[in-house]
């Protein structure tokens, strides 16, 4: 049950945040879940239950050369905890600002002489302005780092204090908090489901979600995103699953657990995506209709037509009539007429964390009693984020508190405090003006590639180093159930092959595009522009990926050297 | 009604645009000459509030080019009807405050509001195309609300953390004292057990158990054979 709870809390933020805003999200997700997610989840649970140790010890038992795998998991968890809490800080910021009327992101601030609205806000939308200017105060590029913004910094400190409060007493208290943080979002999701489905235009979003688009299915990016999302949502490769499974009874039927957890995970993610898409459909419909209204107003004013004459239904005919009757005037007005399309509104994909904050706030501001919905939504986001953070910090703290060296000097409150303090101090980097760009670097590179490698090594190690038959007989002796051929096929062949192909796609993508690029906010244009990373940012990306992946070969090397030395010692003694 | 006059009139003319259907929906009234008369009256009223223009009459306001939209142009002429009043004057008149800015009211646009209200419209549906509406300044409280809420939650979290840390320290101290206390009681136990020759029936006696005489006599009756 504990494992289930921990596994649930992992995925929500990722699913809600980085929803595939393309209609064919469901198909790759379900396929990847059955082929990759479930088998690998079962594998990790089985390893933990069999070895009865945390991730570092478990892999060392499987094969002494694999002690680096556990260390790599801890390093990845450390990076994750560093940057992840910034999301909670932003959620706090939005939550505190939700108690105002009107919501601060629904109106643009006035410009200097009060004759109009702020220029940047006019060009972008008020929600984007609030996110990029008021929350992040983002700089035009990653090179201009700017100063630490005190408002997000305060929220970050509060977020870390809250995390520290929850992990203070160790994993027993964390378990209780985890139940709360995992169950409450369900309630909010149900409320939102009811509200979302009754919104005007929600059906557009749902129709978009459920219609598969063949050309997007052919795009490997859709499959890659689905796969990495499964990894994150199930918490594979972080070492926390192994740690939690090690507390289980040996006779525990972990196969049943794995299947149940995966099914609950996927059904919750589908449930969450129904909510998301209905709200998204509402937002797209609202924008589409206001775009049409703007065009109508423009034409009515330019041609002095009777107010109310132009409606959505006769817009096209009237446009063609005006084009023929007043060609010169029409050609003057024509550049300003936007082509409004519901499809394009539905297809606007917002990058990264912006999705959760920009898209949802835009939808919320148009609902009635928007303060209530806003508070509910950000409270839920906060619960999910804190829950994820608890899992992460537990993964870091368990090896630290288990090691005799450290725990003899410091009580566990002090260790937790130190970890939180260090992570908070490093996390202040993300509150600088260029902080969001660094955040995107961490988000995109710190966990995705290393996790793939870790899981690949895990699957290959169990099947080929330890021996699939040996593991099968272990499981049979432990649980009493024979291993189904499906799991054997997946562990031995399909899942590793899939991960290798994902690797190949990532690398080929990188090689084809040449250099890595990022989206920077241009204040003068009021939109995102693509820029190249400077060399030192590329170096840091390389360092991030290397520092966790190199643990595996370094661990093997270290064990090899230690064994060599021992052999020499025993040889010399003899 | 159109005016014939020097070209400079065009500079001093303002275009007005009304969106009756948008503002009022089904209750929209038709724009006829009576409404035009009311409009002229409102403009004249605004002009009369300008110093030196108290003599403005309704007949000094001229409307022109009324379209279906509804939109039209208007100018205000001076009493001699020779030339039109400069745009700046008319603009300031429309924007003039109704009363001197006193403590209570800080809106600078009460004349505009008056005109809007006469027609059941607002700034967006009754537009004076060259007179930008000064947007209402947002009401900023002196202390932003979010800081208050932040402060509350921050204090709660800090207090809770302190409490947990302190209780943790107290538990540690108790544990440290605990083993030494445990040893004392164990010695006591051993002493009493030794006295009783290792038979641990002492706890029963210490708990104040009473010997039931009735049972004893029954046993004595039954045992001899």
UniProtKB/TrEMBL annotation, chain A:
GO terms for molecular function: L-proline transmembrane transporter activity; metal ion binding; proline:sodium symporter activity. It is found in: Membrane. One of its GO terms (cellular component) is apical plasma membrane. GO terms for biological process: glycine transport; L-proline import across plasma membrane. It is a multi-pass membrane protein. Keywords: Glycoprotein, Membrane, Metal-binding, Sodium, Symport, Transmembrane, Transmembrane helix, Transport. SUPFAM superfamilies: SNF-like (SSF161070). Na(+) binds at residues 233, 265, 384, 388. The chain crosses the membrane at residues 26-47, 68-96, 147-167, 179-202, 222-247, 259-280, 375-397, 418-439, 445-468, 489-508, 536-562. Its main location: membrane. Pfam families: SNF (PF00209). PANTHER family: SODIUM- AND CHLORIDE-DEPENDENT TRANSPORTER XTRP3, SODIUM/CHLORIDE DEPENDENT TRANSPORTER. This is Sodium- and chloride-dependent transporter XTRP3 isoform X2. It comes from Tursiops truncatus (Atlantic bottle-nosed dolphin). The gene is SLC6A20.
From TrEMBL, chain B:
It is a single-pass type I membrane protein. The keyword Nucleotidyltransferase does not apply. Its main location: membrane. One of its GO terms (cellular component) is plasma membrane. Pfam families: Collectrin. It is found in: Cell membrane. Keywords: Cell membrane, Glycoprotein, Membrane, Phosphoprotein, Signal, Transmembrane, Transmembrane helix. GO terms for biological process: positive regulation of amino acid transport. The chain crosses the membrane at residues 145-166. Residues 10-225 form the Collectrin-like domain. PANTHER family: COLLECTRIN. This is Collectrin isoform X3. The gene is CLTRN.
């Amino acid at each position: 049950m504990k494992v289930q709870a921990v596994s649930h809390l992992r995925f929500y933020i990722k699913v809600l945040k980085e929803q595939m805003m393309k209609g064919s999200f469901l198909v790759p997700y379900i396929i990847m879940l059955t082929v990759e997610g479930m088998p690998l989840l079962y594998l990790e649970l089985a390893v933990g239950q069999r070895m009865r140790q945390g991730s570092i010890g478990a892999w060392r038992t499987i094969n002494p050369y694999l002690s680096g795998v556990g260390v790599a998991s801890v390093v990845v968890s450390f990076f994750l905890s560093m940057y992840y809490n910034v999301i909670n800080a932003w959620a706090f910021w939005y939550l505190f600002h939700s108690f105002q009327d009107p919501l601060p992101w629904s109106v643009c601030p006035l410009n200097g002489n009060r004759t109009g609205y702020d220029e940047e806000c006019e060009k972008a939308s008020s929600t984007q302005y609030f996110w990029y200017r008021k929350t992040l105060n983002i700089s035009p590029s990653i090179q201009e780092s700017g100063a630490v913004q005190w408002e997000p910094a305060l929220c970050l400190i509060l977020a870390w204090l809250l995390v520290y409060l929850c992990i203070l007493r160790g994993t027993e208290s964390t378990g209780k908090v985890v139940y709360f943080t995992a169950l409450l979002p369900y309630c909010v999701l149900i409320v939102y489901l009811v509200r979302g489905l009754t919104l005007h235009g929600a059906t557009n979003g749902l129709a978009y979600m459920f219609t598969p688009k063949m050309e997007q299915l052919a795009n490997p990016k859709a499959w890659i995103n689905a796969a990495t999302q499964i990894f994150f949502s199930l918490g594979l490769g972080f070492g926390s699953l192994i740690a939690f499974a090690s507390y289980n009874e040996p006779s525990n039927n972990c196969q049943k657990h794995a299947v149940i957890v995966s099914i609950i995970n996927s059904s919750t993610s589908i449930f969450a995506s129904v909510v998301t898409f209905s709200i998204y459909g509402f937002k797209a419909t609202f924008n589409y209709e206001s775009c049409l209204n703007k065009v109508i107003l423009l034409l009515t004013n330019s041609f002095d037509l009777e107010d109310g004459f132009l409606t959505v239904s006769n817009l096209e005919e009237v446009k063609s009539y005006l084009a023929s009757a007043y060609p010169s005037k029409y050609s003057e007005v024509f550049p300003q007429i936007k082509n409004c399309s519901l499809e394009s509104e539905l297809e606007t994909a917002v990058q990264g964390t912006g999705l959760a904050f920009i898209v949802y706030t835009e939808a919320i501001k148009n609902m009635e009693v928007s303060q209530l919905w806003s508070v509910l939504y950000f409270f839920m986001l906060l619960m999910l984020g804190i829950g994820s953070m608890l899992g992460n910090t537990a993964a870091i703290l368990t090896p630290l508190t288990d090691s005799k060296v450290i725990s003899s000097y410091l009580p566990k409150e002090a260790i937790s405090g130190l970890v939180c303090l260090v992570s908070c101090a490093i996390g202040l980097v993300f509150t600088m003006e260029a902080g969001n760009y660094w955040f995107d670097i961490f988000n995109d590179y710190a966990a995705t590639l290393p996790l793939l490698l870790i899981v690949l090594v895990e699957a290959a190690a169990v099947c080929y180093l330890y021996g699939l038959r040996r593991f099968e007989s272990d499981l049979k002796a432990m649980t009493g159930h024979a291993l189904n051929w499906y799991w054997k096929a997946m562990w031995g062949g399909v899942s590793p092959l899939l991960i290798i192909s994902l690797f190949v796609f990532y690398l080929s993508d990188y090689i084809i595009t040449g250099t890595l690029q990022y989206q920077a906010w241009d204040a003068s244009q009021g939109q995102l522009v693509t820029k190249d990373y400077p060399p030192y940012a590329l170096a840091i990306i390389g360092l991030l990926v290397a520092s966790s992946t190199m643990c595996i070969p370094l661990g093997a090397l270290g064990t090899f050297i230690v064994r060599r030395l021992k052999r020499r010692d025993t040889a010399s003694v003899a | 009604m159109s005016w014939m006059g020097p070209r400079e009139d065009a500079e001093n003319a303002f275009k007005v645009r009304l969106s009756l259907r948008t503002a009022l929906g089904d209750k929209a009234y038709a724009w006829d000459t009576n409404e035009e008369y009311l409009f002229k009256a409102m403009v004249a009223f605004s002009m009369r509030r300008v110093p030196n223009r108290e003599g403005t009459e309704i007949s000094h306001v001229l409307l022109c080019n009324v379209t279906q939209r509804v939109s039209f142009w208007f100018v205000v002429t001076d009493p001699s009807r020779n030339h039109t009043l400069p745009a700046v004057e008319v603009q300031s008149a429309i924007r003039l405050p109704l009363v001197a800015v006193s403590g209570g009211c800080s809106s600078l646009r009460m004349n505009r509001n008056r005109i809007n209200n006469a027609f059941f419209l607002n700034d967006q549906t009754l537009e004076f195309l060259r007179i930008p509406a000064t947007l209402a300044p947002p009401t900023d409280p002196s202390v932003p609300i979010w800081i208050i809420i932040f402060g509350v939650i921050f204090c709660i979290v800090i207090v809770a953390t302190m409490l947990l840390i302190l209780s943790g320290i107290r538990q540690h101290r108790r544990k440290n004292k605990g083993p030494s206390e445990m040893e004392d009681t164990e010695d006591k136990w051993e002493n009493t057990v030794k006295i009783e020759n290792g038979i641990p029936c002492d706890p029963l006696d210490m708990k104040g158990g009473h010997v039931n005489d009735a049972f004893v006599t029954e046993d004595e009756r039954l045992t001899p054979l």
